[in-house]
Structure formats: C-alpha cells, structure tokens
Amino acid sequence: MTDIKKALLDPTAVFDRPMQVLHASDLSAQQKIEILQRWRYDAQLQELAESENMAKGGQDDLLEEILEALHTLGVGK
User: What CA–CA distance (Å, rounded) separates 35 from 4?
Assistant: First the structure.
C-alpha cells in the first residue's frame, strides 16, 4: 500500500519514476495528480537551481516524464 502522506511530502521517497505513480492502483486519480504536482514543483525548483549553477543537471528528462504523467491524467491539456 502506498504511503500517501510520505508521497505528498517527497514523491521520490516512495516512487522511482513518475510513471510508477500512474500505475499505483491504490491511489485515486486526485491523489496521483497531487503527488505528481508536488514532484513537478520540486523538479522545477531543481531546474531553477541548475540554471543558477547551484546544482547538477539531469532534471529535464524527469520534468518531461512528470508532465507526461500529468497529461495522461488530464492535467495540462
């Protein structure tokens, strides 16, 4: 069973990739959206830090995966 509270605080503590959120059968569509939106927020902050040379790269692909997962759930159409 997915730890929803933990996933909402830190999606990477529960899921390795955004598409795993989509396949979590014990989560409602709304819970999946909330988790992915939190993950998107975190990834965007990381991307901002990278643009200011404060962190290492690698978030572009992750952010694309998050946006794709959200799109699958009907967010961002």
Answer: 8
